[in-house]
Design brief:
Elements lengths: L1 E6 L5 E6 L12 E4 L10 H13 L5 H6 L1 H12 L3 H9 L11
Antiparallel strand pairs: 1-2, 2-3
Helix pairs in contact: 1-3
């Protein structure tokens, strides 16, 4: 068996196992190694996918990885939840000097 990367239609990256003879394009039919689905956390989809992909990129794939790499899990969550400071500044720029939106 060989390990290949599969990206699902929502953008989640996972490692999957395929027979050695199977083309990598068949990854959607492979056996998923991980990371596991995080849907049960109830996060907004965008954040769920970002955390999932951060775990993938940090090599937190299996239950053993998760037990051994708790700091990487924390770093994945922090990284996935970072918001571009410029976007926040732009939101503030839309407020009046009193801190309320001009439409209020």
């Amino acid at each position: 068996m060989k390990r290949v990367t599969y990206t699902d239609p929502a953008g989640r990256m996972s490692w999957v196992l395929l027979p050695e003879w199977a083309p990598d394009g068949d990854a959607h039919m492979g056996v998923v190694i991980g990371p596991p689905c995080l849907a049960e956390l109830g996060l907004p989809l965008e954040i769920e996918i970002a955390v999932h992909n951060q775990l993938y990129h940090r090599g937190v794939i299996t239950a053993l990885d998760a037990r051994q790499k708790r700091q990487e899990i924390t770093a994945a969550i922090i990284s996935a939840c970072k918001v571009d400071a410029g976007r926040i500044v732009n939101i503030y720029a839309g407020l009046s000097p009193e801190g309320v939106s001009p439409s209020e």
